[in-house]
Amino acid sequence: MPVSDSPVITAPNGEDFATPKKMRTKIIELSGSVEAACALGVADGIVDLVESGETMRAAGLKAIDTVVDSQAVLIKSRKPSNQATIDLITARIQGVITAQRYTMRAAGLKAIDTVVDSQAVLIKSRKPSNQATIDLITARIQGVITAQRYVLCQYNIERARLTEAKSITPGKRAPTVTTLDTEGWVAVSCMVVKKEIAVVMDKLTAAGAQDILVLDIHNSR
C-alpha cells in the first residue's frame, strides 16, 4: 500500500493508482515525514514531493518513477495593486538564483550524508600555564564566530549618494570606500549582520546602489 502527502497530485480524480506492473492500488493520504512510513511498516512505498532526494535516500529509499515534474513560479496580476512589492520580491528571488549558480550544487556536487554533528568548546585550567596561547586560541574562535554572524556587502554608488548609503551600511567599524575609474562613482565594502542583509539590499537599491554583491566571510580577526 503506497502513501502520499499529496494524493490529489498522485491520483487527481481519486482513482486507483496503476503501478508499472499494472497492479492497481489505492493511495492513502499521510501527513508528516512520509519517508519514514516504509521503515515503520505503515506503507510499502511512498509518493512524495522532493527537490534533491537526499532525505529519501537517507531513509533507505530510492526513486522508481517520476509522477510529475514541477517548479515554483511567481504569478502577478495584469494590473497589480502594489507593483513595488512585486518588484521587491522579484529582485530578492533573482538575487538568490544568481547566488545559487556558484554553490556546491552548481559545481555538480551533492551532500550524500552527515558523518557527525558536533560543536567545539574551549576549556581552560583555572590556573593556565600559558595564558598567551589561550588568548590566541580564543581570538581565533571569536573570529570564526564573528564571520558566521556577518556577511561582506559590496556595491557601487555615486559619490553624491555616499552619505545615504553609509547610513544604511555603517559596517562593523566603518565601511571601506574606494574611488572607481568612472568619474563620480565609488565602491563600498562593509560587514553587515547576515540576518539583516535582505532588507539592507532593498534599501541600497532604493538609494541608487548598483552591482550589489553579498559574500560569505570564512574567518575574521
UniProtKB/TrEMBL annotation:
It comes from Verticillium longisporum. Residues 16-95 form the ATP phosphoribosyltransferase catalytic domain. Its main location: cytoplasm. This is ATP phosphoribosyltransferase. One of its GO terms (cellular component) is cytoplasm. GO terms for biological process: L-histidine biosynthetic process. Keywords: Amino-acid biosynthesis, ATP-binding, Cytoplasm, Glycosyltransferase, Histidine biosynthesis, Nucleotide-binding, Transferase. The lineage of its organism: Eukaryota, Fungi, Dikarya, Ascomycota, Pezizomycotina. The keyword Magnesium does not apply. The keyword Membrane does not apply. NCBIfam families: HisG_C-term (TIGR03455). Belongs to the ATP phosphoribosyltransferase family. Its EC number is 2.4.2.17. One of its GO terms (molecular function) is magnesium ion binding. Transmembrane segments: none annotated. It is an enzyme of class 2 (transferase). Residues 147-219 form the Histidine biosynthesis HisG C-terminal domain. It holds the Pfam family HisG_C. It is found in: Cytoplasm. It catalyses: 1-(5-phospho-beta-D-ribosyl)-ATP + diphosphate = 5-phospho-alpha-D-ribose 1-diphosphate + ATP. Pathway: Amino-acid biosynthesis; L-histidine biosynthesis; L-histidine from 5-phospho-alpha-D-ribose 1-diphosphate: step 1/9.
